[in-house]
Amino acid sequence: MATACISGHFLARFIDPEPAKCSISASPISCSRQSSIHFFHHKYQSCSLSMNGCQGDPRAPIGTIETRTFPTVPSPALAMDTLNSAISQLKSDPPPFTSGIIRLQVPIQQKIEAIDWLHAQHYLLLPRCFFSGRTRTGNSDIFNGNGHNSTPKTHNLVSVAGVGSAVFFRHINPFSYSDWKSIKRFLSNKCPLIRAYGAIRFDARSNISSEWKDFGSFYFMVPQVELDELEGSSMLATTVAWDTSLSWTWAMAIDALQATMCQVSAIVVKLRKEVPKTFILSNNHIPSKTYWDLAVNRALQLIDTGNSALIKVVLARSSRVVTTTDIDPIAWLACLQVEGENAYQFCLQPPNARAFIGNTPEQLFHRKCLSINSEALAGTRGRGRSTTLDLQVELDLLSSPKDHLEFTIVRESIRKKLEAVCNGVVVEPKKAIRKLPRVQHLYAQLAGRLRSEDDEFDILASLHPSPAVCGFPTEEARLFIAETGGGCVCAGYAICGDEVVYVVVVVLKKVCLVGVGWGSGVGEVFDRGMYAGPVGWFGGGESEFAVGIRSALVEKGLGALIYAGTGIVEGSNPSLEWDELELKTSQFTKLLKLEVPLHQKLIT
């Protein structure tokens, strides 16, 4: 009865403003989808040995898109030999096109785990990526290329690891329809494994801090060299892309590919799914517990008074962990795979930059041809220590009025957005439990059929950000996040090296508290960057994106920034929400020792 009363009070306000079909950002902006909006102008060091596909004409077709498959070999070393020979032959007999993209792939009898192969390339300064689907991506006809020695077979793709970029896509401006078309220009239904892997910022309207500058507003890459982990086997592939109109000729592209191949290791060692525990020198939360409580209470005031349209807002925390030794992001990712059931694992790292890694249970959408699937995920509880206790926790989550409200907001918002571009939407199950190794959530599955494959951009622009990571209504929640910064409103700042120290003022119930917080932008005290943004890949006839939560930004020599967030609705308790943050970050903190031994403290 309590659930029905609370839900009935708010469900009438579920109608979100009409989603704009424009640039991807954390709020709808009214403009044509062919346009993009310019907010900030930063100069980036251009990525060497590659080209930025965003600088081309998205309307100009690529001269050729090909996949060439070679005979199966027993080992990665023999696959490298085959590819090097094929690249040399291709160099001596170049294709008669001023632009194109060609993938060369060699099946390997031996099953090589993609994460192991990527770790073997850890010394490279090239960009790298990793994506492991929560479930198998389905029957991809990966050997049915249009080159020689093609043998039609069907295998399931498990994980992909890549180094180098045959072509990358990055811009300081929000991800636009034109950028999407620039990526799709290099993709084709007939070459399903030529894919662009990457991520988009949570809020493209917020300023970009120093730790996220290499990612821009979005960053995607088609790997130069990649290892595809299949069920029972694997495949090594190389991709070369060129476009004379972008001043990236065939000769430059093939030379760059050969240079990358010279650096790739064919020796793959099984990576242990554990890391030597490093000690924490410091662990600073932004916001602190005090400012967190203030932010939650302020949100509850707005929600409870009815003077605001705000029903839900998702507040986040950034925890900067400084360790005694460097953190290996790929080793961390391998450990996350142990807890990876019902979750996506990902890594995205621009050249010689920080690595964004995560283990997220939340799907944004999966498109195959015209079929589209999405999910609603909200409400969190820990796992019980026994089967009986776990069932009690599950029943408590299912019957909680507060969690039912939070979950219903997410589900109904996603359903409405899918209905705007689909002929019909089916929600089944409407409310169930998804169990993960450490936590369990309420979830629902939604499926529909797009009217056109070009609606993919509209789906991405509409679904992100969902109420699960931003709030509802979207614009009110985004503004609250930007204005509070986790409970802080900036009153002034001073630049200290690469950081910005803010003198912040929080006003709540006519009580003014002044404190100091660290950040790099006006508005939210820390920059969410790609945290809670779309993370995944675009393909010719298929695309899949997760939501970049349960994630961290690993900084070489500086430890890591660990991110987590919780949804605030009527009935939320600041301390319980803080405990939920701790629960969500535990998959990372369990890899660390929380205290430095006394003798090390005395030495330092």
UniProtKB/TrEMBL annotation:
Its EC number is 5.4.4.2. It comes from the Eukaryota. It catalyses: chorismate = isochorismate. One of its GO terms (molecular function) is isochorismate synthase activity. GO terms for cellular component: plastid. The keyword Cytoplasm does not apply. Keywords: Isomerase, Magnesium. One of its GO terms (biological process) is phylloquinone biosynthetic process. The keyword Isomerase applies. Residues 291-484, 524-584 form the Chorismate-utilising enzyme C-terminal domain. Belongs to the isochorismate synthase family. This is isochorismate synthase. The lineage of its organism: Eukaryota, Viridiplantae, Streptophyta, Embryophyta, Tracheophyta.
